[in-house]
Amino acid sequence: MFQKMGKYTALCASSLLVMIAVNAHAADGQVEFTGSINDNACTINSGVLKTSVDMGQVRIADFANTVGSTAGSTPFSVSLENCSTSTLKNVSIKFSGQQSATDDTVLGMSGANQVTGVGIQINDARTGSKLPLNTASTDYVLRPQTNTFDFTASYVRLVADTAAVPEGAAAVRGIGTGKVNALASFDVTYK
């Protein structure tokens, strides 16, 4: 019986050593796997993820004295790369940002000491028509590989000048002078 107990004890002891060895190696490290799966047909060109559009200088005299008149049209683009059109064939682009206090379809100025009486209007370069903030563009057809979508940004008058009221008094300008700073983000929707 002692001999049987010795074999049993030896077997249990060796099993315990294997379990200890396995447990000692199992807790030495950890690997975390992260990622995502999306249904995007393209990737956004890294050059347009954060870009700056220099609107240049315009004079107040470049605007007609009507609300909605524009001046200083500047082109800019959104580029998509590595496009696959096997499942999704179209795309629309929507711009959003701080809206003007007087016209929620155009970008208002952001930051301190900004010019007054103007906003930034975005137009679809294909049609020349205004693309209101928070409104998706009409669909663009995707081509395989690279796609570039063109837009223009313009200063837009939001306040008209007032005529001189008393004789000899100067008109009150609707547009001030100063810095212009506006920020827009864009979303791409695949269809």
TrEMBL record:
Q: Which UniProt keywords apply?
A: Fimbrium, Signal
Q: Which GO terms describe its cellular component?
A: pilus
SUPFAM superfamilies, from UniProt? Bacterial adhesins
Q: Name one Pfam family in it.
A: Fimbrial
Query: Which InterPro entries does the entry link to?
Result: Adhesion_dom_fimbrial, Adhesion_dom_fimbrial_sf, Adhesion_dom_sf, Bact_Fimbrial_Adh_Pro
Q: State the signal peptide span.
A: 1-26
GO process terms (BP): cell adhesion involved in single-species biofilm formation
Q: Where is the Fimbrial-type adhesion domain?
A: 32-190
Superkingdom classification of source: Bacteria
Indicate where this protein resides in the cell: Fimbrium
Q: Which family does it belong to?
A: Belongs to the fimbrial protein family.
What is the protein name stated in its UniProt record? Major type 1 subunit fimbrin (Pilin)
Source organism per UniProt: Pseudomonas deceptionensis
